[in-house]
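Box 3.1 A note on notation
Throughout this textbook, protein chains are presented in two layers. The first layer is the amino acid sequence; the second is a token string describing backbone geometry. Keep the layers aligned when reading.
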Amino acid sequence: MTVTVLGATGKTGGTAADRLLAAGVKVRAVGRSADKLAALKKRGADAIVADVGDGAALTDALRGSDAAYLMIPGDYTKPDMLGQYARASEAIARAVQEAGVRRAVFLSSLGAELAAGTGPIVGLRGAEERLRAIGGLALLILRAGYFYENNYGTLGLIKQQGINGGAIEPDVKMLTIAAADIGGVAAEALRKADFSGVVVRELTGPRDLTMPEATAMIGKAIGKPDLPYVRFPDEGYVAGLESAGFSGDAARLFLEMAQAFNKGIVRPQAGNEKVRTATSFEAFADAFAQAYRAAG
């Protein structure tokens, strides 16, 4: 069995590739950096340097594969983020079809059933639609919650200003998940090949958390038990993202996504499979603390 893994050096694809290799599956690891792929190559994976927007390179990577893990890495510096998603979606779908792949797992997001108003999630909806249109493809769509790892984005803020903050309202319960758990679910599904047709599986962690609750756990882990969560004004949130390197378009889309969370429109849907994964936010907070201390 041969499985091609896109984003094989990333948060979810890295775990998927690792688990598949450990199970004795032949892996084609696709990533943008040969250096980062070296560890997987050393373990026996075929390392392929390719961009998800390069349809020809993806077709070559996928040809002869029994199955694939598909995802679109976000580039928040691009001036047209949804355009980037659309081009990558088209390249991936065309490659899957031309290479004759018959089984795939695609990483999407909660809220991807909505046509507008969810920021970058709209781009994942477009990818879902393109993949659904491929005849004969057994497709498992993983609609995941908000990554624990997104909290690393405020590590500098916590260290420099002693606060955590964002555009999510303090009373909103976020459906969150560890990225590695997503990769684990993907690897298991690809290894077992136990899905057919189009299946939507919603993935969330063991419990939902407000941002103040998550902040309190991070604060405890880093030795700042009184660490506060601050709801930034919308314009301040956008300005902060831009100062961190986001394009104006990406910052606006992330604000729109936060507003979607605040409105409660990004939520589980009846009829989809539901999976609660095991990694706790407390475990992530311990990893965050290590990164916090390493930052000096």
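The two ends are 45 Å apart (CA to CA). The CA atoms of residues 200 and 235 lie 35 Å apart.
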